[in-house]
Every structure is written in C-alpha cells, then in structure tokens.
Amino acid sequence: MLLSFLLFLHVIFIIPPCGATVNSALLATLERVSGYAAAAYCRTNYRSGADLPATFPPNTFDQDGFCEIVHSFLNVNEHDTSGLIMLDHTNEAIIITFRGTISHTDWNTNLEGLQYDASDICGEGCIAHSGFLASWESVADNVKSNWTSVLQQYPQYDTIITGHSLGGTLAHICAASLKKMRPNATMSLYTYASPRVGNLIFANSINEGFGNNNHRVTHLNDPVPRLLGRLFGFDHTSPEYHITSPHIRKALSANKKTLAKPANLVVAADDILVLPGPENEAGSLRYSCTNIEMHDEYFIHIAACAVDSKTSLLSRFAIDICHILLLCCNSGLKFGTMWDPVSNGGHP
Ligand SMILES: *[C@@H]1O[C@H](CO)[C@@H](O)[C@H](O)[C@H]1NC(C)=O
Ligand SMILES: *[C@@H]1O[C@H](CO)[C@@H](O)[C@H](O)[C@H]1NC(C)=O
Question: Which residue among 151, 182, 184, 187 has the greatest number of ligand 2 atoms within 8 angstroms of its CB, and so is best to mutate?
C-alpha cells in the first residue's frame, strides 16, 4: 500500500535520484561558469598581448578584472571556430571557453554532416558529428599546446572547459580529447544548451572520464539540446542539470536595456533537477512545445556580447534552424516534436 502510494507520488512529482541535488556551492559555480561561456562571445576578448584582463557582458557575476586572457583563437577556418584560454586567479582555474553561433558559417558546421569516426579521441566505435569534429580539429593543436604550457605554469589549477550552444559541442569534444591526453589532470566540464555531439560511446567516454565533474545544463524548453536526436544515433552525456526556473526570463526582460544579471539568485538550487541520462524524459525532452527564446537565457543573458550585430542572434538562429530542417518558418511548428523521435512516440 505504502509502496504503491510512493510509486504514485513518483509519477506525479519528478523525484530526482537520491543524493543528486544542487547545493549552493554548485549553484554558484554553475552561474560563475556561465560567465566564462558568455565571455567567448565578447569580441573585445580576442586580442593579443600579455596579461589582458577579460571582459564580460555587463554585470556578469562581477567577474570583470580578475580573469586574464592567455590565448585566443578567432574565426579559425571555414567553421569560424573561436574561443579563449583564460586564467581565473581568484578561483585558481584555467578556463577553456568556446563561442557559440555567431554567423552562418558556424551553422554550416551543423549542416555539414552527420557521423564521423572519432576513435582517436574516444576509442573504438566512437562517433561524433563531423562538422563539430572538424571545427575542434582546426584548433586542437593550438589549444592542447597552449593549455599544456599554462598547466605547467599553474599545475595546481583546475581546468574548466565550457561553452554555450555550438560552443558546448566543442567543449564536449575538447574535454574528451584533453582527458585522453592527460587522464590525471583535474578538469571539469560545464556546457550550456549543447546539442547532442556523438553516439553513446562518445557520451560514455565523457561520463566515465568526468564523472561528477560533467555538467550538461539545459533550460526549460530550449529546443537546441534536443537537436541531432537519436534519429541520428546520437545521445547526450549524463547527468543533465535541468533549470526549471521560469524566473530567469522575467528578470532578464525587466533588465533588457542593460543586459544585466537578474536579481541575485533568480535560479534557486532546488530549481535545478539533476537527471541521469543519457536521455531523461523529465528534462528538456519533456516539453511538447519548444521556445527558442530560452536558448540564450542560462543564469544570465549568455550571448549578450553577440547581440550587437545587425540581426539578433535569435532570429539568425531561427532562420538557420529552418534551413537545417529544410522547412519554412511557421509559428505553429513545434520544433521539439520534429527533431526528436521520442516525442513522436517511440525509441528508434
Ligand atoms: C598557442 O597557439 C598559437 C596559435 O594560436 C601558437 O602560435 C603558439 O605557439 C601556442 N603557444 C604555445 C605556448 O603553445
Ligand atoms: C594517473 O594516476 C594513476 C594513479 O593514480 C597512475 O597509475 C597513472 O600512471 C597516471 N597516469 C598518467 C598518464 O600519469
């Protein structure tokens, strides 16, 4: 009787697995790292020179001034691969952060293709998206050598690999690659709004290599984490940190002019569900309708630095997604149900 009541409760409320919750320290880290991901969008960070302080979107968790850029790569090859290596001396961390979508060339990365042998990075049978992989390979040697030299200077620092959206896919591949190179280095991975990157073998190599240090963050019904679905044979890494807070949007739209951070701690620790994967129906998969406006809102307005171009990131992005699907834009379309076979009632 009690058991069935508990099962009943479990069905009504999504009870996160035992022990898997976000405490205030992790919440603060998830927020802080979202600022590193945001910094990769800021054009001002792509300069050469020594001891450059990194800039962040206005009021991004007060990080201005204490991150130092040690290396940057901007618009490398046809994929426009861009990112930064920074040092956060306050938090004793080496940050490797990748920029997300900014141009059409970026999304050609998505159009380009499907599966590609990634066994060099993650072992036999490992497959990743060929465009993401080519994008990573265009900067891999530079990132590895620059990271190695920074690590020699600061051997006690943790390495944090991050990125938003397309930047999240690069962060995943970078993470798998650096883990293979130095399995004993302390590193952690934080991705925001990342699409699926590769097959289950790829995802498992991240899960096993990073364990508790892997954080795949999704927000409400952002469609992008649903991209490159299982129809392609792709799977997500685990766990998913699913932000359920509807407050981010409200706070951000109230502050749109300044692109400011929302009132402190708009996302509370218990707004975040920690869901084991690879595909958890209680996370970003659970919505029948998706909303592209959720895509930039991860603790902060994460692509704030990209918004200065003629067309907004979101509208370009929406157009590109339509191109990907070879469908016309139609406000009635439910992106998620088209992209993900699971929402259409069945596992492949
Ligand atoms: C860092 O990468 C750049 C290319 O972007 C390269 O020229 C330089 O030699 C690298 N530095 C180190 C220390 O590996
Ligand atoms: C990593 O650490 C383990 C023991 O903790 C050791 O056996 C192994 O040789 C180390 N691997 C590398 C590549 O340093």
Answer: 184
For residue 167, being part of any structural domain is answered with yes
Nearest to 215 by CA among 234, 195, 188, 197: 188
**Which pLDDT tens digit goes with each residue over 18-55?**
447 899 999 989 989 999 999 999 988 998 776 788 88
Closest atom of ligand 2 to 182 CA is 13
Query: Domain residues for 145?
Result: 17-339
**Protein residues with CB under 6 Å of any ligand 1 atom:** 71, 73, 142, 145-146, 149
Q: Which ligand is nearest to the CA of 184?
A: 2
Q: How far is the CA of 71 from the centre of ligand 1 (A)?
A: 8
Within a domain: residue 290?
Answer: yes
What's 292's domain CATH number?
A: 3.40.50.1820
Please count the structural domains in the chain: 1
Residue 95 covered by a domain: yes
Residue 6 lies in a domain: no
User: Which residues have CB under 6 Å of ligand 2?
Assistant: 183-184
Provide Rg for the chain, Cα atoms.
19
Low-confidence spans in the chain with pLDDT less than 50: 1-3, 5-19, 257-265, 309-311, 319-320, 322-348
pTM, two decimal places: 0.82
Q: Are 217 and 238 in contact (CB under 8 A)?
A: no
Q: Are 94 and 161 a contacting pair, CB within 8 Å? A: no
